[in-house]
Amino acid sequence: MKRKYEALIVLDMKGKEETVEDLVNGIGREMEKAGAKLEEIDRLGKRQFPHNPRHVESGYFVNFKIEADNAALDSMRAKFKLNENVYQQYYQRREE
Predict the structure, then answer these.
(1) Residue 1 — pLDDT band, cuts 50, 70, 90?
(2) Residue ranges covered by each domain of the chain
(3) What is the pLDDT of residues 29-66, one digit of tens each?
(4) Alpha helices in the chain (DSSP H)
(5) How far apart are CA 26 and CA 47, in angstroms?
């Protein structure tokens, strides 16, 4: 059963040659390959972290509104965990 989710992805841009737009589009394509349907992408911008976990001072925050089933969500989590550009990922079910 497909449900609506919000996926907050924090990108680590430190030392990357790709542009933010390329990385965001790549993440969106990976979500669609996993079986999710993209509804909206909100680019929240670069933000500083209050402390420096793992020597990363800031990240680029992107909020994806998607519709996916549990298998697609699990697949995305596994893929993004291995992606060196993804610093953090959070998923929350939307009520609509």
Answers:
(1) confident
(2) 3-93
(3) 999 999 999 999 999 999 998 887 778 889 999 999 99
(4) 20-34, 70-82
(5) 21
Question: Which residues have CB under 8 Å from 65's CB, separation 6+?
Answer: 4, 5, 6, 7, 38, 39, 40, 41, 42, 94
- What's the length of the chain? 96
* Beta bridge pairs of residue 65: 6, 40
Is 3.40.640.10 the CATH number for 3-93?
no
Q: At what angle do helices 70-82 and 20-34 cross, to 10 degrees?
A: 140
**In what order do the strands lie in the sheet containing 3-11?**
37-48, 58-68, 3-11, 86-93
Alpha-carbon span 83 to 76, nearest angstrom: 10
The partner residues of 43 in beta bridges, in order of sequence, read 62
- 3 state DSSP class of 2: coil
Query: What would the two tokens of residue 35 be?
Result: 């079986």
